[in-house]
Amino acid sequence: MDSLKNFNPIEIYYDRGSGALKRELVRFDIEQLKAIAKGFTVLKRSEYIKYTDKIELVEKIAASIKSKANAGAAFGDYKLPD
Prior knowledge:
Blueprint: H1 9-16, H2 18-25, H3 30-40, H4 45-48, H5 54-73
Helix pairs in contact: 1-2, 1-5, 2-5, 3-5
């Protein structure tokens, strides 16, 4: 899991958008994705732990990151990428 050490999905989303985030997320295995979900999303454990399909979990994480980022954007005067 050393590859997770410098991985910041929120930064990727802000800098390059959700497409780039998904492309980066698919590089990880399912357990690494669950660790990302735990560390960077507002998903409950019961929401991400059940996933066995990598692509479905990538979609769930990306949607959660986007939602979290857009909620934070309400307090800034900048536009987030799609």
